[in-house]
Structure formats: C-alpha cells, structure tokens
Amino acid sequence: MGGMGNQFFQIAFAKFLQTIGYKVFINIDFFNSKSTRGNSTSRHMVLDPQFFFLPYSSKARARLLKFLNKLNKSNKIPMNFKNFKKIKNLEDFNELKSLPKMLHCEGYWQDISIIKYFRVEFETFLKEKIIELNKQEKSVLKGSTLLHIRRTDYKEINEELKENFYIDAIELLNNNVESFNFDIFSDDRNLQINEEITKKSNSIFLPLNQTNHLPNKILDTFIDMLFYENYILSNSTFSLLASEFSYSSDKIIISPKPWFRNRPFYDIYPKNTLFVKNEI
Fold it and tell me: I need a labelling partner for 67 at 20 to 30 A (CA). Which of 98, 186, 239, 247 fits?
C-alpha cells in the first residue's frame, strides 16, 4: 500500500521475512480499491512484488487472515495465541518473543537499514526499468542538487515543509558545495512557492496532468532523480529513496528534523545526513 517509497520498504521487509524462513505472500487489494484511484493523489503499484519473487496473496488467504484477526481479538481463545500474530510496525516485530507460524503484517516498515540488505535486487529492478523506459544513465554533475517539494496530500494533514526549510537548506549547501546549483521536483502541478527559491533554481519539474501519477510516469520521474550529486529531501520516502539509490558517490543529504511535526515517526535518516529544522 502507499506510494513508491513505501513500496520499497514493504518489499524489503517481505524479503527479510523470507530470509528467516517464512513463506511470504503480498496482498495488493489496496491498489484495486476504488478509493485509491481517480484523483491526483492516487497510489499505484510501481514495484511489482512478483519481480522480487514475492507471490500475490489469494483472496482465500486474505479472508483467512481477517478471520484469524477477529478470532484473536475474541475472548474465545487465550490472549497469548501463539500460532498467529498481527503486527503493524517494526516495534511490534522486535517485541515478538517467538515467531508465530502465521504472521500478518500490515504497515510501512520504514527502516533504511532494511533497504541496504536488498540493495542489489532494487538496483537490478531500476536498471531494467531504465532500459524498458528508454532512459539513459547520465553522469552526475558537480554541485548538482535535487530539491524535492511534497505538497498535495501533505497540505491536508498539515505536514508540508514550510518555505523557510528550503531557504535554509539552499543557503547551507550554497556555502558548502562547490558549483552549487539545483533543480526542483514536486508532486504539486499547481506549485506556488517563494520566488526567492524558484528564481535560484535551474529547472522546475512538475506533473503536467493526472497521467503523470501512473506507474511508468512515477518511475520515469524517480529515475531522473537518481542523477544528482546532492539532495534536499522533503519529508517523503520518495525523495529519501532517490537519494539512497542515487548514482552519486559523494553526496550531501539535507533532511528535515523532525520528519513530521504532528505525528511520531521512526528514525529513517540516511547516515551523515545534515539537518535543517522543520518548523511549525
């Protein structure tokens, strides 16, 4: 479920479960739901689990899990029912005293260290998509920087980064990076932002219409984001993962801290990240 960034984490956690002996099946009902389609913030399955040797869950298996969830919450069985467990985050998993025979996982599993263990599989996927989409690997130019602005649904939950974050991040890199320059990428095709930011940018890349949210368009944008030396992240796993798989060998990454202002969030920052305050 969720966007492309979250799908990376979910696939990585599923692969981790395979390495410790589980047979893993992926439920993709989220992407078939009418509530996730037909608007500018709709989500699509960009990372097909089958590419990573993760089969889809059958409808019968999904119904079985719902039944077991209901049974596990009832008073008809012991509270410490050991054959089945539902978990929603990494904290739940780490608190398991023993591994149940059946594990129902419904969450985002956002831990950058898990991504690193399956880096080769993800890089293979991206290389194949570069060829499939007729993209070309580009050289990373000195000082080139990607600035990502996540708006749309974030404005609805009051978690979009304020303009001061971007102004401070630009100033920080400008003072520390030789030949500093930057491009802006955003999910908001009606982006309105301080001219102090836009006038300093080389280019601004915005979705032109709703079709830009379809899987191949999302991948096309993500691949373009890989060829920068440095990154100014929004509080979005989309740009976080672009920096993680970047072709830059000597990158500076600037992240907002805290990641979200109004809700708890796990520490998913890459190593050697520089922080700029995420102000209210």
Answer: 98
